[in-house]
Amino acid sequence: MDIHRLQIxxxxxxxxxxxxxxxxxxxxxxxxxxxxxxxxxxxMTQVGFVVDTFHELVSKxxxxxxxxxxxxxxxxxxxxxxxxxxxxxxxxxxxGVVSLDRDLRITRMxxxxxxxxxxxxxxxxxxxxxxxxxxPIRDMIADKDVVERAETAYTIxxxxxxWIGLTTSHLKDSRDxxxxxxxxxxxxxxxxxxxxxxxxxxxxxxxxxxxxxxAHELRNPMGVISGYTKILSKxxxxxxxxxxxxxxxxxxxxxxxxxxxxxxxxxxEPVFDPLDIKKLVENCIIMLKSSPKIVVRxxxxxxxxxxxxxxxMRQAITNLLNNAVEAMTEGGELTVSGSGDDLQVLLTxxxxxxxxxxxxxxxxxxxxxxxxERGTGLGLAIVHxxxxxxxxxxxxxxxxxGSTFTIYLPKDSAx
Length: 415
What we know:
Elements: H1 2-92, E1 96-101, E2 106-109, H2 111-117, H3 129-132, H4 137-142, E3 147-155, E4 161-172, E5 178-187, H5 189-235, H6 241-265, E6 273-275, H7 277-286, E7 294-300, E8 306-308, H8 310-327, E9 332-340, E10 344-350, H9 379-389, E11 393-399, E12 402-410
Parallel strand pairs: 7-9
Antiparallel strand pairs: 1-2, 1-5, 3-4, 4-5, 6-8, 9-10, 10-12, 11-12
Helix pairs in contact: 5-6, 7-8, 8-9
């Protein structure tokens, strides 16, 4: 009985022990799970914080990236705007601008430079100054010294002679280091022509004032010589008559010179009336005594009626036409062209003759300067005086292929 109780007690104790073990195990398990869940929750909280922080940083980075893109776009637009603005200034400058690198190769040339020198940009960029320019500009660019406000004659590829005012300087970068050369120049041809015309006008005016009296004084003794020559021609023997005849011819030449001289010296007082300049030029062409070897071309457009002296203008145009014909001794082509607008009329008379030597080109309008064997040297001086008296200008361009006289006349000369 005692044994049975002991067994029961033992079994009960074992069961109780097992129950306690299970209880502690379960409690520890729940505690472990709870702690694990708390740790996981804590870990999740930390991970969430990191993730949230990361997303926030990414968001801010993207926002900054967008701002940078906007700033970059604005900077590019501004740079492009500045570049376009600088290019517009570069191309709009009326003076020619040429930049060259250290090897004196052309890197840039603006529109004015291309126009003045009659060049095309695609044919000169990258070429050396020796290939593009002629002396003396080529020598000035190659010279290491800076050139300030120099003036020089310059002949372009077509043979046209220009007056160029130029400066050369070192081309530097932002750190003040020399990276090439810079040439800036202006076409002074029209200004020089105007100055030349003004100086010539003053000289001719002074000469005209004192020449009239001299011409009259010469005409009186020439008349006496002519009279005695006629008497001698009737009284001398036959062997001497050729001599007397030669004297008479020379007297006629002298009389013609005096007549031209008086025409030149006489104050020009044009009678301004409406004049159909197109019709006048066409009539002068019809009356022109030209050789069959000479082809005459008229390229006159519709010209406006101007106010001018018909007699004087006829004399000037006829003189220029005759000179053009005389310049083509072996034949050639004479071209007369004209155009006009509301302000002025432009006439050009071109020949394909031997041309006018550059050394004498500035002297052809001076009185008594001639290259003709029997010329008086007053024809072009009279033409110049007539054109000037009408408020116009006359210019000559010449090369070995021929000469071109260009006349500019205001539409309303009387005004």
